[in-house]
């Protein structure tokens, strides 16, 4: 039996993952998402239970994905009195970065344990650091919490469907399980020729036991809900019904939202809600209710906070708020004080997508390339 409701993993110390005062990645917008959700589904409501004390993951857990030398390198950066660089420039190390990054890993593991026990979604909005590689930091990601959680499920003999809707390709996860026959990886992202990390092409389909299980949908800049939602409906359900995962992991980056500061896609809250409902239905249908949802990228606090709060509402079985519903005044006050910007007044207030070059022909072409690479045809959605 699967059940309604959601587990939220949120420890205020997740906010210690702070890459610098002017860095685009901040946990403050995730904190605001959690506060907005809690304003609608308060503590004590059976619609949500909370895990709010999470200790950093021990080195043995980090070592299941990361190399020992890299872990030691992060420990040294963490102990240094001044910020250093962990990669070529995007991912600064900072005093305390080791426990901060390891706590996010533990958050993913606690969410994993909970969804496996309770058969209802578990949400880790602070996580989803999908770019970190075994031997290096990358793209604001120090330790790959989502890969470590997937690796643990695989180690326990489970089959995992990983779905990634972040605007950037989830390279750390895909290459981390490129040979694995136990990880189906479906990744929607902005074309790597136009955006970091420059990978995730349709011809990257896996290797060895993993052959045919890595599915990359690279969308052109400007693509919006009209690209994402029909493609998602066409590709994801049949692949999951064939693969029959024991667990679905959704990396719910929000940097595909129209108006994001770093990417050029144009998804809207309505598109995200649609995708979230499909994933929730699939988790119940094919994965016994086992669904781990993480956050990810997203570089406009107004969008990140509202879309992640909306996702929590959908996964808790409460449905999505309407675009013209007002946002709580107390939350708007917290928004102002945490990110020093004017808060939106309504759920749907924000930038409006412009016309993109996307069309049914573009979709047909993209699907034809994908089918050619994967050697299979996708049925029309029901
Ligand atoms: Zn991203």
Structural description of this entry:
With 382 residues, the protein is of the alpha/beta class. Helices cover 38% and strands 11% of the residues. The chain contains eleven helices and ten strands. The strands form two sheets. An eight-stranded parallel beta sheet has the order 2-1-5-10-9-6-7-8, sandwiched between helices. β6, α6 and β7 (183-190) form a beta-alpha-beta unit. α1 (28-40) packs antiparallel against α10 and α8 (269-286) runs parallel beside α9. The longest helix is centred in the first third of the chain and has 22 residues, at 97-118. The protein is globular and about 55 Å long. Zinc ion is lined by residues 166-168, 253, 255, 296-297.
Average pLDDT score? 97
Low-confidence spans: pLDDT under 50, at least 5 residues?
none
Distance between the first and last residues' Cα:
25 Å
The CATH homology group name: Histone deacetylase domain
How many domains would you count in the coordinates?
A: 1
Helix content: 25-40%
Ions, cofactors and other ligands present here are: zinc ion
Strand ordering within the main sheet: 2-1-5-10-9-6-7-8
β content, as a range? 5-15%
Shape: globular
List the topology elements.
Layout (H helix, E strand, L loop, with lengths): L5 E4 L18 H13 L7 E4 L7 H4 L5 H12 L4 E2 L6 E2 L3 H22 L3 E3 L20 H11 L4 E5 L6 H6 L6 E8 L23 E6 L5 H19 L3 E5 L17 H18 L4 E4 L6 H15 L13 H11 L20 H15 L8
Parallel strand pairs: 1-2, 1-5, 5-10, 6-7, 6-9, 7-8, 9-10
Antiparallel strand pairs: 3-4
The protein binds zinc ion (ZN).
The site of zinc ion has 7 residues, from loops.
